[in-house]
Amino acid sequence: MLNNFTWREILIRFALVFFCLVLWRHGLNQIAIPALTLAWIIDGGLKRFGQVIKEPLVQAILVLCVALLLGLLWSDYPDGGRMKWKKYFILLTFIPFFSLLNKARLPWVIGALLAGYFSVLFIGVYQWVILDQQGVSIFGMSYLNFSAMLGIGVILATYLAFTVQAKTLKILFFMLALALFFVQFNQNARGLILATLCTLTLLVFLLYRVEVKRIAVVLASLMIVIAFFAFNSAVFQERVIQVKHDIELLQQGNYSSSVGYRIAIWDVGIDGIAKKPWLGHGTGMPVSYFENTIVTYKGGVYKELPAFQRTSHYHNDWIEIGMHLGLLGILVLSFLLWSWYRSFKVHQLPILGATLVCYIFLAGLTDSFILYNRIPILLLVITAIMIFWQRENQENKIHANVNISAN
After folding, report:
1. Helix or strand or coil: residue 141?
2. How far does Cα 335 stand from its chain's mean position?
3. What is the pTM of this model?
4. Which residues lie across from 132 on neighbouring strands?
5. For the chain, which residues make up each domain, given as ranges?
6. What is the DSSP letter of 77?
7. Do residues 207 and 162 lie in contact, with contact meaning Cβ atoms separated by under 8 Å?
8. Which tens digit of pLDDT belongs to each residue from 28-77?
9. How many CB atoms lie within 10 A of CB 256?
10. What are phi and psi for residue 310, nearest 5 degrees?
């Protein structure tokens, strides 16, 4: 008969696996996150909180959440349709997830994450190839979420391909990166594709910054791959044509297009930040500000935009947080990204940290990336796994050196 400790361990592993498997289904997060939190409490997480809070990323997440709560003090209480800002608090899941990891649980977590990722990938590819549809409708994932997921996979697979020692693994990771990149090229998310390309360029530079010839060879190879994908991607070519059409509409003063809509909301957002630069309009107020302002702003040039698309965010992480909290919010978000990188650097993974943070930053320039339903959780899970893996490797090396010295 299983003893209490074994039952507790089974419950904890179930919570971790369940969390990794269902992070792709937004509704199930309402079950997975409380289950993860309960497992953390059962495992004595509150007693270890003093150790976990030493992680720079944990500190920055707590600062962001406190700032958002303080922002409620100078805002009108947002109604049910103005609660998108609550998604920032999903970042708090990093605390119990990271605290629950140990050597015995890590294989279960990695297996569950890979199973979930490749299941979503398979369905997304099937939907694109067979049904000629973007995104993953069965999980309620838009093409933006799916493309962001692919971009993260491309970056991580490329990093592992460059850093692992075994040649077989190098080839497998390179092939995986190419396959994921090809699928992403056939999604409609132009900004995320550019973010992936720029991040890959940074990754190559950081890995081979003292080897100019090698950088040139790798970048030339990347350009060839991009040209091949672009030439053979009907979706990519359609998006290029769409951009030209959007620009033509802009020249006519029509903002009812993807490009025009973003320019309009950025314009209104920057103006809103300029009016209350220090503390912003208060947590939860950006959307109502937009809807109230466009009626008269610049003679009402944007007043027809709600008919084109209902605004729920500002399609830019910095404008979004700036509208909530002004300069305070921008500084807090900067601190979050810097601390995210520092957590990687502390555990001797500075290149991986720099590339992932670069991707978050670039993706956040054309969309409210941190408010995506699933992608921030995916990044936090990857962060926790890579940091824990690296920490375990460092401790094993120290123990091995101690044993050698003792002998």
Report:
1. strand
2. 16
3. 0.93
4. none
5. 4-118+233-397
6. P
7. yes
8. 778 899 999 999 999 999 999 999 999 999 999 999 999 999 999 998 86
9. 15
10. -75, 130
